[in-house]
């Protein structure tokens, strides 16, 4: 009988432990165990060790092989090349390890050893403006990272640093004061469907009308400027109108998040305005400590390595010469709040790569001021979403594409795919599945590309049933559910004594990697590696189906149960992984 491994142990870990035990003089030396094409694993650690011990690597490798226990994990170990070890695992070790995994709700994924507190800044659109594809990336990537970190036991505080402060609010509020009915619901002309769309239509109209006046009427411009001062000083009437604008926008944002199937809690929406009261302190501290200096009236921080095209240093402007505060000041105040009050160990910023210089300067300033420990803050910069022409995604008229329109189109495309595959569905069933497929497709396309890279927004590819798409993964999941339904009363049961076919071994060993993959994804903040893992998992499952009949397995009832077990664990792993990415796995497709 195979021994029962502990919950967290993977096959990988069990082999690594056996290698370390076989070579006590190696101490904590890493056996450098990797999956391999030649055998199940290859260990390359003997090479480095031999070098350190000034011995012959092949001889040392042979010593390791001799010292290895003959237990039920290792089926064979061979020395190859200059001193690699090619290692083959027993079928029973694979099945029994997976059985332990399956008995655990967390699928054997351990909690982080030293979880801390992370504040993550993501999904930060701008008030009174449309959400565009850039906000898609920040929302989808941020949401995935939140879930992956929380799954590991990290305390995660979400901060949606929305753009709700700045010069344009003087203009908008002043216009509202002079045109009090502008935001009234009755004056709706061309509101779209839904409450959120109507709110955005009103805001757009307000924005355009006030902009026209601002650009053409010097006196209005002056009144708008004074209004901004009132706003920042906390004048009650001004604040109330500003609030109205912010609330309208939040209604719109929530509509988009709802369609995107991402939960954003109101309490976590802490925009630029929230830091207003601390801005004077930020200025005072930076000036007194000498971190910032006055230059032509503005309060600036200089950096040796940040220069403009003319060779002159480009400063970070904390306060403008007219006394106004900008984007940098609120970000500095936010750092003080997140480290000082929220007691974060790490700060993450899921923001467009084009803001990299801003964050570099802000982080360095906060460090010089003593507000931010070294390495505590990190921007996770993402690339640009491109159109099929390879240029930043724009409408034909050259305008930025509304996120909501893209989502609607993705759902429409998905509806075609769903209806074609399952003609028996009612229209409302099609609509429900199309939303899960279409939104999943958009999220997956974004998350499966390494975040710093640009990618082309191509719906045809995104909703395709084959290739590296979420539909392919959702289909893999649904197929297992369909097999389980057909299995009737037969339950998935692991039988470690059964021999495994090559496709079963490959699937099983890939399943074995789930916990390690998640750990590394959480450490490096790279959700695309989880997407890649899941895609490979689905591909292994496809090969397994081709080669190994499940319900008609040639080896009789125990083999049926064991294959069902493999299918089921694969489906649970797919579901868990997809859900961490924020993607639904419908039971039928
Ligand atoms: N509102 C900004 C934008 O849409 C993103 C804010 C990023 N976060 C921050 N703390 N600056 O570009």
Q: What's this model, at a glance?
A:
This protein has 589 residues and is of the alpha/beta class. It contains 20 helices and 13 strands. Among the domains are: 7-89, Arginyl tRNA synthetase N-terminal domain (Gyrase A, domain 2); 167-270; 405-580, Isoleucyl-tRNA Synthetase, Domain 1 (Orthogonal Bundle), CATH 1.10.730.
Question: Secondary structure elements and their pairing?
Answer:
Blueprint: H1 11-22, E1 33-35, E2 41-43, H2 45-53, H3 57-67, E3 74-80, E4 84-89, H4 91-102, E5 117-121, H5 133-151, E6 155-159, H6 167-178, H7 195-216, H8 218-233, H9 236-260, H10 279-288, E7 293-295, E8 298-301, E9 316-319, H11 327-341, E10 346-352, H12 356-368, E11 377-382, E12 385-386, H13 403-421, H14 427-447, E13 455-456, H15 459-462, H16 470-486, H17 502-512, H18 514-524, H19 527-547, H20 557-581
Parallel strand pairs: 5-6, 5-10, 10-11, 12-13
Antiparallel strand pairs: 1-2, 2-4, 3-4, 7-8, 8-9
Helix pairs in contact: 2-3, 4-17, 6-7, 6-8, 6-9, 7-8, 7-9, 11-12, 13-14, 16-19, 16-20, 17-19, 17-20, 18-19, 19-20
Bound molecules: arginine (ARG).
Q: Explain this structure to me?
A:
The protein is α/β, with parallel strands linked by helices and 589 residues long. Among the domains are: 7-89, Arginyl tRNA synthetase N-terminal domain (Gyrase A, domain 2); 167-270; 405-580, Isoleucyl-tRNA Synthetase, Domain 1, CATH 1.10.730.10. Helix content is 52%, strand content 10%. Helix 2 crosses helix 3, helix 6 (167-178) crosses helix 9 and helix 16 packs across helix 19 (527-547). The radius of gyration is 29 Å and the shape is globular. Bound molecules: arginine.
């Amino acid at each position: 009988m195979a021994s029962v491994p502990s919950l967290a142990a993977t096959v990988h870990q069990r082999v690594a432990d056996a290698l370390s035990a076989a070579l006590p003089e190696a101490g904590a030396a890493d056996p450098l165990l990797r999956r391999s094409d030649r055998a199940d694993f290859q260990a390359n650690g003997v090479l480095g060790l031999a070098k350190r011990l000034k011995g012959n690597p092949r001889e040392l490798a042979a010593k390791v092989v001799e010292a290895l226990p003959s237990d039920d994990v290792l089926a064979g170990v061979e020395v190859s090349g200059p001193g690699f070890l090619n290692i083959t695992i027993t079928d029973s070790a694979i099945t029994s390890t997976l059985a332990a995994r399956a008995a655990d709700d967390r699928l054997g994924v351990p909690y982080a050893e030293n979880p801390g507190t992370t504040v993550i800044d993501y999904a930060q659109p701008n008030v009174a403006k449309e959400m565009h594809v850039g906000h898609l990336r920040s929302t989808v990537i941020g949401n995935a990272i939140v879930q992956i970190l929380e799954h590991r036991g990290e305390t995660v505080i979400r901060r949606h640093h929305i753009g709700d402060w700045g010069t344009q609010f003087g203009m908008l509020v002043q216009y509202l004061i002079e045109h009090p009915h502008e935001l009234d619901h009755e004056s709706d002309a061309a509101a779209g469907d839904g409450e959120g769309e109507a709110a955005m239509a009103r805001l757009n109209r307000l924005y355009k009308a006030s902009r026209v006046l601002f650009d053409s009427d010097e006196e209005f411009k002056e009144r708008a400027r004074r209004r901004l001062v009132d706003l920042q000083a906390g004048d009650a009437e001004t604040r109330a109108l500003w609030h109205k604008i912010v609330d309208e926008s939040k209604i719109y944002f929530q509509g988009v998040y709802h369609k995107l199937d991402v939960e954003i809690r109101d309490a976590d929406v802490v925009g630029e305005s929230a830091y207003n009261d601390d801005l004077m302190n930020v200025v005072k501290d930076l000036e007194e400590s000498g971190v910032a200096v006055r230059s032509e009236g503005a309060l600036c921080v200089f950096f040796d390595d940040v220069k403009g095209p003319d060779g002159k240093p480009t400063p970070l402007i904390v306060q403008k010469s007219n006394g106004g505060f900008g984007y940098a000041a609120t970000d500095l105040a936010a750092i003080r709040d997140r480290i000082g009050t929220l007691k974060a160990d790490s700060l993450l910023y899921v923001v467009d790569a084009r803001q990299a210089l801003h964050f570099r300067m802000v982080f360095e300033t906060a460090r010089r001021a003593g507000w931010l420990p070294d390495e505590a803050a990190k921007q996770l910069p993402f690339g640009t979403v491109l159109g099929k022409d390879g240029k930043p995604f724009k409408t034909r008229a050259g305008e930025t594409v509304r996120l909501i329109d893209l989502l609607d189109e993705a759902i429409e495309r998905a509806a075609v795919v769903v209806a074609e595959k399952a003609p028996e569905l009612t229209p409302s069933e099609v609509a429900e599945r199309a939303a899960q497929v279409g939104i999943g497709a958009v999220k997956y396309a974004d998350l499966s590309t390494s975040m710093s890279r640009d990618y082309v927004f191509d719906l045809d590819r995104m909703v395709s049933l084959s290739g590296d798409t979420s539909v392919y993964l959702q289909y893999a999941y649904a197929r297992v559910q369909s097999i389980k339904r057909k299995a009737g009363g037969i339950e998935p049961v692991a039988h470690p004594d059964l021999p495994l076919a090559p496709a079963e071994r490959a699937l099983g060993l890939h399943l074995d990697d789930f916990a390690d993959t998640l750990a590394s994804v959480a450490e490096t903040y790279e959700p695309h590696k989880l997407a890649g893992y899941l895609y490979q998992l689905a591909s292994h499952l496809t090969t397994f189906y081709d080669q190994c009949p499940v319900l008609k397995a040639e080896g009789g009832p125990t083999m049926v149960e064991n294959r069902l077990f493999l299918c089921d664990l694969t489906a649970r792993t797919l579901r868990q992984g997809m859900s961490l990415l924020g993607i639904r796995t419908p039971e039928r497709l």
